[in-house]
Amino acid sequence: MKTKLIQPGVVTLVGSGPGDPDLLTVKAARAIQQATLIVFDNLVSEEIRALFPDTATQFYVGKAKGNHCLTQDEINQLLIDYAKSGVDVCRVKGGDAFVFGRGGEEMLLLAKKGIHVEVIPGITAASGCSTYANIPLTHRGLAQGCTFITAHADKELTANWSALATLNQTLVIYMGLSKTEMISDSLIHHGMDSNTPVALIENGCTRKQRVFTGRLVELTQLKNQNQIQSPALIVIGEVVTVANQMHWLEQLSERSSSTDAAQQQMKLSA
Ligand code: SAH
């Protein structure tokens, strides 16, 4: 008797962006709408989860720091098992799967198992969160480039601090919240000006977004005073001053429009 071969399902790695569902690409939104099985991470925002079709089976695999629902190996196995049973899997990740998202590992592993993988890029946190905070990552006269790094390491963090401290570029640090002291100390120790502007962006691109700016030397203080929680992004560099200018300009235009309104009111009542 011949056993019938099951055609493996396709796994689609979907980058869902930093939180705002309007930042989903058309392709990502379509993949989510058409999904029958969704495996999603902690970083996928509530607003995006609300778009998951009722008909789709949903599998939360967590991965908040220190609170892993499933290990990466277990997640990999889950994806392999489902695909091998002939089910298409929509694997939804926060931001972009290929930027500190382990998307590359999942893609290679699935391909090795003969499973077809598609990857849909998403807006990464550095881009989305800094834009929503009015911080351009590059800006003429302030930063000619930008470096993304992660402060997360399985063992010891081995960043080249002396290179990072002297690049004169914007630095965006992912997963850096628990290491703010080490980050500012290392950069200052290797020559970065302690007054370099910094921003902490918490829950960027969601309704809960909070942004705080200060100086490199007070990064930890800024975090503690404002009780910043994960997910949060650290932006270091002169470009942060653009957000401060915008804040000031917005206040100015609010003030002048309320003065206009008051003058209008006075004219009417005269
Ligand atoms: N693949 C994701 C990054 C995963 S690493 C991407 O491309 O964006 C997780 C880290 O990303 C968090 O610890 C935090 O530093 C950052 N991050 C992701 N989403 C964020 C958000 N909405 N607000 C602030 N930081 C965010």
Automatic annotation (TrEMBL):
E.C. designation(s): 2.1.1.107
Domain Tetrapyrrole methylase: residue ranges: 11-219
Domain of life: Bacteria
Name the UniProt record assigns to this protein: uroporphyrinogen-III C-methyltransferase
Classification via CDD domains: SUMT (cd11642)
Annotated pathway: Cofactor biosynthesis; adenosylcobalamin biosynthesis; precorrin-2 from uroporphyrinogen III: step 1/1; Porphyrin-containing compound metabolism; siroheme biosynthesis; precorrin-2 from uroporphyrinogen III: step 1/1
Keywords: Cobalamin biosynthesis, Lyase, Methyltransferase, Multifunctional enzyme, Oxidoreductase, Porphyrin biosynthesis, S-adenosyl-L-methionine, Transferase
GO molecular function: lyase activity; oxidoreductase activity; uroporphyrin-III C-methyltransferase activity
Membership in a protein family: Belongs to the precorrin methyltransferase family.
Any one Gene Ontology BP term: cobalamin biosynthetic process
